[in-house]
Structure formats: C-alpha cells, structure tokens
C-alpha cells in the first residue's frame, strides 16, 4: 500500500535468488564446485538474514499498511465545545482552542449557561491522530493493546497465501512477467471481499469475531471488485513499467548476456538507469497507486457494518455523499466520489506520512544491509568472493 511495499518487493526478489542458490546443488555447469563454508557460520548468517527479513516485514506492515489506511479514513478535524476544567494540559497541546462565541441578537447561549464567562468554555479542534506516527501508535495501543500494530495480520497472511497460490495457477497459462501481472490482477479481484474484510479489521475497534467470520458474503463482491481491480492494475503498473523501461536500453539490456563484458562507463550507465527507474516508480506511485489505494480503502470503509465502530474518527456519510442501505441507499460510495471526498488536508497528511515511512524503512534496510555485509566478511573471510561468483552463476541459471 505504500512506497516501502514496492521496495520490500524488490528486496524479496533478491532474497528469492539467494534462497534458490542456497538450496541448489553443490555444482553447476560451467561454475565449478561451490566453496565449502562452516555450517555454523552459514547457520548464523541464515538466522541473521531471517531476523532482518522479520524486521523489514514488521516495519512494512505496521508503518506501510496500517498507518496509511487509518490516515485514508480519518476525518481531517473534529470540533467540540469543552469546559476548560476537563482539558488535561499536554506539551505540545494536542488541540487548538478558541474561546466560545458570545450570544448574538439577545438569544441565550446554552453553551455558556453554566459557566462564568467566555474563558470557561473552549472550542476544541482535535488534530487527527495520523498527523503523528507516534500519536497514532499510542492511540492504537490505548484502544487495542500493544499488539495492535499487527492487527489483521492473521488474515493478511492467509489472504496473501491464497492469492499467491491462485497467481501460480493462473500464471502457468502465460509463463512470463506480463502473464504473472495479469494473474495477480485476476487473483486480487477474485479475493476482493477478503481485501475488504482486512480493511474493516484494520480500521475498526477490536471485535470478538474471528477474522474469517468478518468476510462479507459473495453478494458484496460486485460492489468492491471494481475498486480492487483498479488498485491491482495500478500496483502492477508501478511494479513492472519502470523495469520494462529501464531494461529496454543501455547496459541493463545486456545483463542477461553471459558474453557481455561491462566496463567502467557501463557502471555509470547502470547507476543512471537505476536512478531513472526509481524516479519513474516514485512518480507512478504518487500519481496512480496512491489515488487507487485511497479509493479502494474508502469504498471498503463505506461498507463497514453498522455494528462496527471505527478506531479513528470517520464520517460514514462522506459529507452526505452516501445513503445507508438500511434506508434504501446503495450503502457504499462510488469510485470517483471516494477520491474526491478525500480532502486536500488529508492528502497532504498522507503524503507526509508516506515520506516518513519510506525514510524509516530505508534506514532499517540500510542497517540490515550493513549488519549482513559485516557478518559475511567476518564469517566467510577469503571465501566470500568465491561465494559471490557462485551465487551469481546460479541466479543467472535460474533467471
């Protein structure tokens, strides 16, 4: 759901080649025998890698999925007249206060009937919880406990496993990258009600219902499927298009050629193409992925069951643009209105959150890289170069 998600996906692609290499046989044609390393050293390095993957996944799930979704549904600002004595001071204040207005035209002001003056009643404007990452985490912990940062994880895992199986089955018809993308769109759309149920779990107060009981009936599939199909399509465009563009020219076009001998100038070219690909991915993410994700989340939120309360302030009517199904309405918001009803203040808040999350994830990624590189030098020593050559040959053979 976020830019860090695409970065995680790139990292998992690299990790996949590493696992393939680790499970391959000791000898590959043309590569010679694999270097012999200490089993203890290999075990330590493997455990360190698993810990780093777990760290990156937890950061990506909490900060890259949960927080942006809450930001997409939270109302920009709430207002209320509150007696001064009930407000607990904080530093910095979590609200902005304005003295209550004086009565006009000689009409009595009920808000001030029990107070001694204007200073006793304040108009409190509560800032959104998602304006601050720390405030959001503290709010979730207060309402749903410490492990609320992983709320919906069980369903997320099962849903993605089933989706992965469907993608593998459908992709056998078109065994190429575009075929996999098409299979992903079809699988995600088929499981649209699962996606909606996961969004409901994330945005609602804790419930005693098991996650599989919160999956809506198949009759709701036509209502949510268009939003999921739009999201899945943009997700694949952001993932594939930068690679196709950058891999169609220059040095990257020849990387699969075993006879290609790159020089120093090719190193600079690869760096430039990599920067171009990253810039294109960011641009597509902002212009396509964010609007599609906001649309999906808000359409799903509009169909939240009446008995479920949201964990952050949320206007179920979207400013009067929806009519509940109980009184004859559709009970959902349209795709266009879902995006249009997302105010500019919330869009700016979401972009700031995305930037913060990306920086946090990149910092964790850099830390994990430094740790693993240092361990590799310490544990494998002089055999590290031979291992890198072997891994490159195996990965190219399985590409």
From TrEMBL:
Residues 92-113 are annotated as: Disordered. Keywords: Membrane, Transmembrane, Transmembrane helix. The chain crosses the membrane at residues 40-63, 153-174, 180-203, 224-250, 270-288, 357-380. The keyword Transmembrane helix applies. This is Ubiquitin carrier protein.
